[in-house]
Amino acid sequence: MEFNIKGFVDISLVDWDGKVSSVIFLPNCNFRCPFCQNAKLVLNPKEIPTISFEEVESRLRRLKNWIDGAVITGGEPTLQNGLKLLCIKLKDMGFRVKLDTNGTNPSLLKELMDEKLIDYVALDVKAPLIQEKYSRATGVNSDRFLEKIFETIKILREGNIEYEFRTTVVPSIHTEQDIEEICRSIKGCRKYVIQNFRPAENTIDPKFKNVKPFSRNELEKFVEIAKKYMVNVTLRT
């Protein structure tokens, strides 16, 4: 099966806390977050050359003694029909697998968890879980997605897998009140990560390439708010 892999990073120290990982990028997404840095991967993936799994497998085997696992990210990986088989292949090679997801495919996520095909999940909580604010952060009408995201949150909280909920905070989209509302919704989760937006040349909405990120002091205020609702809060800048 062709896995439609559009990017591969041999060594990453930042995609899985405490681990050295390789990163596999899968295309397409059902969101259009205006601040997203992977515009071509989301909007025009056919313009990006596909990397064969054979090449990825070869590179992973060479890295076997250097990395702790593989991260599957996107785009939104759960849109790909071959995701489960890709996880099987990686597990058969002896790798731990981390999945990055926006939470819109809870049934597939649960299947991967039940079959022990993934070891860690990073769920992006884009904004307070109300239609107007989620739609603004995701660039699409979020009405049809919110129920699925709530289900994904429930699956992770009730499961045995390691996970984190994370929010990329973006000026003009997120406020202190928004962080408070998010944290009320996920109160007591195992790990919550606040990560700062980084402007880039290829954001989906071009105006975000010139947006100045939050200052360290502003980020620390977000962390203080989050710590009222959970013990394990991490800041990524």
What does this protein look like?
The chain has helices at residues 39-43, 53-63, 83-92, 106-114, 131-138, 143-158, 176-185, 216-226; strands at residues 7-12, 21-25, 69-73, 96-101, 120-124, 162-169, 192-196, 233-236. The chain has an eight-stranded mixed beta sheet, covered by helices on one side. The longest helix has 16 residues, at 143-158. It is of the alpha/beta class. The radius of gyration is 17 Å and the shape is globular. Helix 4 packs parallel to helix 6 and helix 7 (176-185) packs parallel to helix 8.
Strands, total number = 8
Strand order of the largest sheet: 1-2-3-4-5-6-7-8
Low-confidence stretches: none
- Beta-strand share of residues: 15-25%
In whole angstroms, how far apart are the ends?
A: 38 Å
Order of helices and strands: EEHHEHEHEHHEHEHE
Number of helices: 8
Give me the secondary-structure category.
alpha/beta
Q: Would you tell me the overall average pLDDT?
A: 96
Shape descriptor = globular
Radius of gyration: 17 Å
Largest sheet: 8 strands, mixed
How much helix is in the residues? 25-40%
